[in-house]
Design goal:
By secondary structure, the protein is an alpha/beta fold. The chain is built from 7 helices and 8 strands. The strands form 2 sheets. It has a 6-stranded mixed sheet, sandwiched between helices. Strands 6-7 form a two-stranded antiparallel ribbon. It is globular. The N and C termini lie far apart (about 55 Å).
Length: about 200
């Protein structure tokens, strides 16, 4: 009888671990969008082309007046990892990022601006170092939308949020969100509050 109980116990544990791993999404990538249609294809494609594929992409349209929303909707039709949120009125980049955080399902959350693009190994490299950490920092690279050349910035402390990922449970436990009353500098404040 004890043997049967032990067997059922181990089967139960196996299924708990198995189903937990199946239902766990590693990463949510949040992209706030406002009137950036000329850059969206490049930005979104750089995210979809990641070598790491276990992510959801949350595109938040902040009441764009160009055809940004149309582009987002078209992408969401071709890739089931994409979720699109649309604001009827412009609320600002902080509200857009917070909306993404609020619906994120990934263990970690990363941010990309809609006029930026990222290296195809970007999230793979961050996640392989994420084992026991709540915040994982990468390297911030300066560039432009029209240049293939980059300059590495050697900063001791910087305010960029784009080179890092944050554990979702950590952000929620401490209610870390972007300050929606700030139109500029909320990323700096967010990063400082995390530390």
């Amino acid at each position: 009888m004890k043997l049967i109980i032990n067997v059922f116990f181990y089967i139960y544990i196996y299924f708990e671990i198995f189903f937990k791993n199946i239902n766990t999404l590693a990463l949510s990538i949040v992209v706030p969008v406002f009137n950036t249609s000329p850059y969206l294809n490049r930005s979104i494609n750089s995210i979809l082309d990641q070598t790491f594929k276990d992510f959801e992409l949350i595109l938040v349209d902040d009441a764009s007046t160009d055809n940004s929303l149309e582009i987002l909707v078209n992408y969401s039709k071709i890739d089931n990892r994409i979720k699109t949120i649309h604001f009827e009125i412009n609320k600002g980049v902080s509200a857009a990022r917070n909306a993404g955080i609020d619906i994120a399902k990934g263990e970690f959350i990363g941010f990309v601006d809609s006029d930026d693009f990222i290296d195809k190994r970007f999230y793979e490299n961050l996640l392989k170092n994420s084992k026991d950490y709540d915040v994982i920092e990468g390297n911030f690279i300066a560039g432009t939308n029209i240049s293939e050349s980059y300059k590495k910035l050697n900063l001791r402390f910087h305010c960029s949020i784009f080179d890092s990922i944050w554990r979702r449970d950590f952000l929620n436990k401490y209610n870390l969100r972007y300050d929606e009353s700030m139109r500029n500098g909320s990323d700096k404040k967010f990063r400082m509050e995390v530390y």
